[in-house]
Design goal:
Blueprint: E1 2-3, H1 11-14, E2 15-16, E3 20-26, H2 29-37, E4 46-50, H3 54-57, H4 62-66, E5 68-72, H5 75-81, H6 83-93, E6 103-108, H7 110-113, H8 118-135, E7 138-144, H9 152-157, E8 164-171, E9 174-184, E10 187-197, E11 203-206, H10 212-215, E12 224-227, E13 241-244, H11 247-255, E14 261-266, H12 272-286, E15 291-296, H13 303-311, E16 316-318, H14 324-334, H15 347-354, E17 361-362, H16 365-382, E18 386-393, H17 399-403, E19 414-417, E20 421-427, H18 434-441, E21 450-456, H19 459-474, H20 482-491, E22 496-500, E23 503-507
Parallel strand pairs: 3-7, 3-8, 4-5, 4-6, 6-7, 12-13, 12-14, 14-15, 15-16, 17-19
Antiparallel strand pairs: 1-2, 8-9, 9-10, 10-11, 18-20, 18-21, 19-20, 22-23
C-alpha cells in the first residue's frame, strides 16, 4: 500500500489505498512535485505523467527510480482531447507490465489546470473512478500553480467520486498541508493540518487548532510605544502614544502589552541582524495581535533587509522620508490588524539564508548554475526577489567583448555566457528595477552590444534555463572566459602617480614612452638693469 512518506505524519493521513483517486493542490510547483514524490514506493510499480517528467526523475532516489516509469503529457494532445485524454493514457499504460495494482501520478501544470471547469471535473472523475476500479490502481492528480487552488471547490463538490483532497500552501520556509478529507483503511479524516519540512529527512508536524477568541487581546489594543529617536523636537502626540528612551525600552513595554503597537527604528548605529532577531522573539512571545513597525531612519534597510524583517514577524516598514504625521496615519491603519503569516521555526536559519552567496562577477557556466540554485534557496526562505536576465548578443559579436564591460560590486550579482547570450543573475532585484540595474552594471549602452533582453523571475523558467546551460557545459560546448577576462583586467590597470621630492612620474607598465627625456638646461640670473 502506498503512502505519503513523511516522518511524523499519522498513518490515517498517509495512506493511499488501491482503487482510489486523490487530488492534491499546491501553489508552488516545486514543492507540489516534492509532495507527490513522497507517495512513490520503491517496492511497487509507479507511473508518472507530466509535461516535464524529468523533474520527477531527477528528484527520486535510486530505488524508487528503478520502479518508476515516466511519460510526457503533451499540452496540445490534452487540450484537443480533453475528456478522452485520461482514458487514452490509461489504455496506453495498460500495455506495460506491472500496471495493475500500480501507483499513478498525473501532474497538471497551472496552464492546464486553468482549463478545468465544473462540468469537466465531474466527467473526469467519473472516468477515473471506473478506470481505477478496473485496474486496481491508486491515482493521484497533482495540480500546481497559484491559480490551481481556485479549482479546489470544483473537486470538493464532487467528493463522492473522490477518496481525498489535500492542498499545500507554501510561503517562504513554511509549508502547510491541509487535508480537506482523506479516505483510509479505517474510515475518513477531515480538516487536518500539518506543517511540512522538505529538508534531508522530510517530516510533518501536526498543528493543533487554537481558539481564536482566546488569542485576541482586548486590552491595550490602541496603545502605541515609540522610541524618542523617531520624534522631532516639540512633537505633539495623542494620549495613547508613549515615548520610550530607545528600542530596548520599547521591546520591554511590548512584553506586557501584547495587543499594542511598537515603533522601532533601524539606523547605522543599530545592528540589523540583532534587531531582526529581537522582532522574531517578540512576535513569538506576544502572538499575532502585536503590531511591530520599523522606521528606516538612515536608509540602511534595502529590499533584501526589508524582506528578512517581514519574514521574521514585522508588520510594516516605513521609508526614510516618512514624516511623523504620516507615521501616525500608518499606525492608525494597523489598529485591529492581526499578523497572519506563519513564523519560521528558526530565525537563525533565515538570517543564514539571507546572506545568500558570496560570489560576484563572472562565473563559469557550471559555477553559475550552482550559485543561482543557492541564491534561489536564499530567496525562497526570505522572500527576497531575484531575477535572471538573458541578454542576446548582436550577431557576430564575441561574448568576451561584452563580458569585459560588466562592472559588478555587490555580492550575489554574477554573470556568465554561452555562445550567443550573456546570462546575468541579480540578487535582491525586482523585475521593475532591471533596466536601472543594467545601466549601472554595463559601462556602455546596452543596445550597442545586445539586440534584446529577457527577464525571468519564476523558479520554473530559471531552473529550465540553468539546466540547459549546465548540460551544454558538461558536453564541452561552452567556453570558459575566466583567463581572458583576467588578462584584460591587467591590461586595463589604472595608472598610479608616485611622487618623491621635486620629481614626479607615472608608473604604467603597459604603456611605452611617447617622447625622449628632456635635456637639462642651466638657468642664469638676469640683471634687472
Amino acid at each position: 500500500m502506498h503512502k505519503l512518506n513523511f516522518l511524523g505524519i499519522q498513518n490515517e493521513q498517509a495512506e493511499i489505498t488501491k482503487s482510489a483517486t486523490y487530488v492534491m493542490f499546491a501553489n508552488s510547483e516545486e514543492f507540489g512535485i516534492e509532495l507527490a514524490l513522497r507517495s512513490l514506493d520503491g517496492q511497487h510499480n509507479n507511473f508518472v505523467i507530466s509535461q516535464e517528467p524529468g523533474r520527477f526523475l531527477t528528484k527520486t532516489d535510486g530505488q524508487s527510480q528503478a520502479r518508476c516509469q515516466a511519460f510526457t503529457l503533451d499540452h496540445t494532445f490534452f487540450v484537443d482531447n480533453q475528456l478522452n485524454a485520461i482514458s487514452q493514457i490509461f489504455e496506453e499504460l495498460s500495455f506495460y507490465s506491472g500496471f495493475r495494482n500500480s501507483h499513478i501520478i498525473v501532474h497538471f501544470s497551472e496552464t492546464l489546470a486553468a482549463r478545468f471547469d465544473e462540468n469537466f471535473v465531474k466527467k473526469l472523475l467519473k472516468k477515473t473512478k471506473r478506470l481505477s476500479d478496473k485496474y486496481k490502481t491508486s491515482l493521484v492528480f497533482l495540480m500546481t500553480g497559484k491559480s490551481a487552488l481556485e479549482k479546489l471547490t470544483h473537486f470538493v463538490k464532487y467528493s463522492a467520486l473522490l477518496d481525498g483532497v489535500a492542498h499545500l500552501n507554501s510561503h517562504l520556509m513554511n509549508h502547510a498541508l491541509i487535508f480537506d478529507f482523506w479516505r483510509h483503511s479505517h474510515g475518513v479524516c477531515s480538516k487536518v493540518k500539518y506543517q511540512l519540512s522538505f529538508d534531508d529527512s522530510p517530516s510533518a508536524q501536526l498543528e493543533q487548532q487554537q481558539d481564536e477568541e482566546n488569542a485576541f487581546y482586548q486590552q491595550n489594543l490602541e496603545q502605541v510605544f515609540i522610541a524618542k529617536e523617531l520624534l522631532p523636537s516639540e512633537t505633539k502626540l495623542p494620549p495613547n502614544y508613549h515615548v520610550c528612551d530607545d528600542n530596548q525600552s520599547v521591546l520591554e513595554k511590548a512584553k506586557t502589552n501584547k495587543g499594542a503597537t511598537v515603533v522601532l527604528y533601524a539606523s547605522r548605529d543599530v545592528e540589523k541582524a540583532q534587531l531582526a532577531a529581537q522582532c522574531y522573539k517578540l512576535r513569538e512571545l506576544c502572538g499575532p495581535w502585536l503590531k511591530i513597525v520599523i522606521k528606516n531612519k538612515d536608509g540602511v534597510l534595502r529590499h533584501h533587509d526589508e524582506c528578512v524583517f517581514l519574514t521574521l514577524g514585522v508588520n510594516l516598514i516605513l521609508h526614510t522620508t516618512t514624516d511623523i504625521s504620516r507615521l501616525m496615519s500608518q499606525v492608525q491603519a494597523l489598529q485591529g490588524v492581526k499578523f497572519a503569516r506563519v513564523l519560521p521555526k528558526d530565525y537563525k536559519a533565515v538570517l543564514a539564508h539571507a546572506n545568500g552567496v558570496e560570489e560576484k562577477g563572472y562565473l563559469t557556466p557550471t559555477h553559475f548554475t550552482d550559485a543561482v540554485k543557492k541564491q534561489r534557496a536564499s530567496s525562497l526562505s526570505t522572500g527576497v526577489s531575484g531575477v535572471l536576465v538573458v541578454l542576446d548578443l548582436i550577431k557576430g559579436l564575441d561574448p568576451i567583448d561584452a563580458l569585459r564591460l560588466f562592472s559588478v560590486k555587490r555580492n550575489g550579482d554574477f554573470y556568465t555566457a554561452n555562445r550567443n547570450q550573456v546570462l546575468l543573475y541579480l540578487h535582491g532585484c525586482r523585475e521593475n528595477d532591471v533596466t536601472n540595474a543594467l545601466e549601472r552594471l554595463f559601462r556602455l549602452a546596452i543596445s550597442e552590444f545586445f539586440t534584446a533582453h529577457s527577464i525571468y523571475s519564476q523558479d520554473l523558467y530559471i531552473e529550465d534555463i540553468c539546466r540547459n546551460l549546465k548540460r551544454d557545459d558538461e558536453n564541452k560546448e561552452l567556453e570558459d572566459y575566466s583567463i581572458g577576462l583576467l588578462e584584460s583586467a591587467v591590461e586595463e590597470q589604472v595608472p598610479t602617480m608616485s611622487t618623491s621630492g621635486r620629481t614626479s612620474s607615472i608608473n604604467d607598465i603597459s604603456r611605452l614612452p611617447t617622447r625622449k627625456p628632456c635635456t637639462p638646461y642651466t638657468l642664469t640670473l638676469v640683471d634687472s638693469e
